[in-house]
Structure formats: structure tokens, C-alpha cells
Design goal:
CATH architecture: Orthogonal Bundle
Strand order of the largest sheet: 1-3-2
Largest sheet: 3 strands, antiparallel
Structural class: mainly alpha
CATH class: Mainly Alpha
Mean pLDDT: 91
Helix content: over 70%
Strand content: 5-15%
CATH superfamily: Winged helix-like DNA-binding domain superfamily/Winged helix DNA-binding domain
Length: 150
């Protein structure tokens, strides 16, 4: 069991790195040079919502300092629009600009193509659902483990 557990952890890490490579390859194919793969994922995860940097961080996808830096770059490059809250001037919310929406639509098309290709013999929807169930269980286990140690 220990070896299988360690293999799973390593595979999760490798898959994440490989996925970032896939996004970078798609950006290169599209001729997009002013945004990186992590920033692209931030855009995709914001999608049509309007969020604060804190909310992005709280979702657990990114580290706080990295989110602030990447949001700043995304605003500078015209992918995000940043607005101060009318109620609390210290808080800013971000949303996708037209340019950001256009790129996320292209990334969504990539995901659809890949999902279609996976369904042609690599993994069924049921198999992916089972993988996701197990990965969510591991995530809950790790979260409870950390809470127990605090």
C-alpha cells in the first residue's frame, strides 16, 4: 500500500507539471506570448465570475503571493479588469476582459477536444468519475490530517 500511495503522489505531481506543459504548448500554438500557463489557468478558473485575490487564493489553487503577482500581470496585459469595491476601497475585484474571455474560450475548446479524445479509448466518463472520487477522498484525508495536527 505504501508504494502505491507514493506512486499516486508522484503521479499527481507529474500530471500537474505535464498539464502545465499542455497549456504552454497550446499558448504557443495560438501565438500567445504575453501570458504564461499558470496565468491562463487563473483566467479559466475566474471564468465569468468577479472575484477578489483573496477568493482566488481561498479556492486553494494558488499561493497568495503568486496570485497577486499573476493578477497584476494579467491586468497589465489586458486579460483582467480590476475594480475597487464601492463599499471597501481597500478591496479590489477582478473579472475577465474581452481579451481574457476570448482566451478562455479557446482553452475551453482545447479541453473539449481532449475530453473527446479521451473518450475514444483512454478513459470513460465513469472511469474519470471514479478517479475524481478517489482524488477528492485523498484531498479530504490530507485536509483532515493537517487540521488534526494544528
Amino acid at each position: 500500500m505504501k508504494q502505491s500511495y507514493l506512486d499516486t503522489i508522484r503521479l499527481i505531481e507529474r500530471l500537474h507539471r505535464r498539464f502545465l506543459d499542455v497549456i504552454k504548448t497550446e499558448l504557443d500554438r495560438l501565438g500567445v506570448e504575453d501570458i504564461n500557463n499558470v496565468q491562463t489557468l487563473i483566467l479559466f478558473n475566474i471564468n465569468e465570475e468577479q472575484l477578489t485575490v483573496g477568493e482566488l487564493t481561498a479556492r486553494g489553487y494558488y499561493l497568495g503571493s503568486n496570485v497577486s503577482y499573476n493578477v497584476k500581470k494579467l491586468v497589465e496585459n489586458g486579460y483582467l479588469q480590476q475594480e475597487r469595491s464601492p463599499h471597501d476601497r481597500r478591496m479590489t475585484r477582478v473579472r475577465l476582459s474581452d481579451r481574457g474571455l476570448e482566451l478562455t474560450q479557446k482553452i475551453d475548446q482545447l479541453y473539449q477536444r481532449q475530453a473527446d479524445e479521451l473518450a475514444e479509448g483512454i478513459a470513460s466518463a465513469d472511469q474519470l468519475s471514479e478517479i475524481n472520487r478517489v482524488l477528492h477522498a485523498i484531498e479530504r484525508y490530507w485536509s483532515s490530517y493537517m487540521s488534526f495536527l494544528r
